[in-house]
Amino acid sequence: MNLSEAELARYLLDTPDFFERQADVLASVRLTSPHGQRAVSLQERQMEMLRDKIKGLEHKIIEMIRASQENEAIAERLHRFTRAILLTHNPGDLPDVIVRELKHEFMVPRAALRLWGAADPYTALRFAQGASDDVRSFAASLHAPYCGANSGFEACGWLEEPETVASLAMIPLRHGAAESTQAFGLLVLGSPDPTRYSADMGTEFLARLGEVSSAGLTRLLPVF
Question: Is the pTM here over 0.85, yes or no?
Answer without folding.
Answer: no
